[in-house]
Amino acid sequence: MNADTQLAVPKGPFKAADAGESAGHPHGVRATARIRATYNGRVTTLPQMHSDGPFHLRRMRTGGRGATVGIIGAMSAPLGGDRLALDITAEDRAELEVTTAAATLALRGPTTAPATYDVRLTAGEGASLRWLPRPLISAAGSNLHQTCTVDLAATARLLLREEQLLGRADEKSGHLVSRIRVHRAGRPLLDQHTAYGDPEPGWDGPALLDGHRAVGQLLLVEPEMDAEHDPVLLRNGTHDGCAVLAPLAGGPALLATAVAPTSSALRELLDEALAHALGA
Amino acid sequence: MSRTALLLLADGRFPAGGHAHSGGVEAAIAHTSVHDLDSLEAFCRGRLHTTGLTTAGLAAAAAAGCDPLLLDDAADARTPVPALRAVARRLGRQMMRAARATFPSPELDRVAAARPRGAHQPVVQGLAARAAGLAPVDAARAAAYESVGGPTTAAVRLLSLDPLGASRLLARLSTEIDAVALAAADAADRVATEGLGALPSASAPLLDITAQQHAAWTVRLFAS
Question: Its function (chain B) (predicted)?
Fold first, then answer.
């Protein structure tokens, strides 16, 4: 009886530790990093900088009234089963730019379950938010569900760039599912869902990518933009990559959509699109 | 009501103007990415699971009684290039005329008055299905079928493909068309609890880019 009691005692904490580990390991990392920028009447300050899991946040040195935050990858992520989130807010009149120091590499994890990566961007009245991460690479065997949810006040400005590379050099694409939803003053501005890699039907065919392995978007929301913009076509063929820059229906916004054979060709198209957008 | 109404609504001869549009296949043929029945099937499969799913969701939601003007905004947010928005509204206007004559309803009249330049075509198609007494999944099926039927017919003309092979292609896609229609109707069902974000927004980058390129052509056989 005494022996039973002794045996029973260590079971409690052992079980708890076991449960804690199973939440962290076989099922992946759970992490939410948060950045909140405010304007104090003179400059933008960062009252919240919460690093978590693979996201190490660092304030970059800048002049002027804006703030720039770099996200440095502190571990290899996302792997299958990970649950990652980034919550970025520029409050009224704050100017915030957020970048990542390196490409984000989605890799096959210990499970074939999808990893999730949810980015939430919020910009208040008169705020300016720039989200310019390095490309996301969907490595062979990886499975990632990504969302980007943007909520803009009527007078907020936004610049967002997303680049996706399907597979590292000459390998098969992983499975990459993304959705971007942008609301401005409570109304829908952009809602797009893309799904690439096996087992998505038709993903590599002539309607979607036609063999291209780099795809990206650039979104500029600028309340003071002139109402009328003619669409700009970059490259008229499709084989070496091509892009279109065009106004959205629901507000003063331009969206560039680009596909290209390589990441450098994609960046070139998006840079050209940005030059047109800013010059327009 | 009569299921035959679905055949009427999905018939290529329904006078809604669809025959003048290639669903992007004319541009894909010009870029030589569609050149035979196999590449046409790949094109259609990609279009069905992107544009087809998205339009089927909008049509199902309109047929289920969701606010058509909010659906029209949702369709705008899902159509990032002006060329495709213009096509969707022009086709919506033409379908509105045919639908009001065929299945008169006060709901169609209200949307026609609120969007005189045309609401997005799948929204009108869903309202027409509703006026005909069809279920949301029927509206979704008509939209999904049209998303591949249009390009297939256009490609037969543009490439002089074997029409029997094209018909076989559509038959091969039919179980996928059914699955897309069911997924779209299921999403429309969830709008009541989850909002319009429950509706699919599947998109295809090359369809968007090449539609805008095609709109700038001076000589073309199809309007889109």
Answer: Required for maturation of urease via the functional incorporation of the urease nickel metallocenter.
User: Is this complex's ipTM strictly greater than 0.85?
Assistant: yes
Are residues B205 and A215, on separate chains, in Cβ contact within 8 Å? yes
Which 3 state secondary structure label does DSSP give A278?
helix
Residue B69 CB neighbour total at 10 angstroms: 14
Coil, helix or strand at residue A73:
strand
Please write the tens of the pLDDT for every residue from A132-181. 999 999 999 999 999 999 999 999 999 999 999 999 988 999 999 999 99
A250-274: b (≥16 Cβ within 10 Å) or e: bbbbbbbbbbbeebebbbbbbebbb
Which residue reads 């933009």 in tokens? A225
> Could you tell me the domains of chain B?
20-211 (1.10.4190)
- H or E, element range at A49: strand A44-50
Q: Name the stretches of chain B with pLDDT < 70.
A: 1
DSSP code string of A120-173: EEEE-TT-EEEEEPPPEEE-TT-EEEEEEEEEE-TT-EEEEEEEEEESSTTS--
What DSSP line would sit under A84-116, residue for residue?
A: EEEEEEE-TT-EEEEEESS-EEEB--SSSSPEE
Cα–Cα distance, A39 to A25 (Å, whole number) = 40
Please indicate whether, in this complex, the C-beta atoms of A205 and B78 are within 8 angstroms of each other.
Answer: no
Q: How many CB atoms lie within 10 A of CB A230?
A: 11
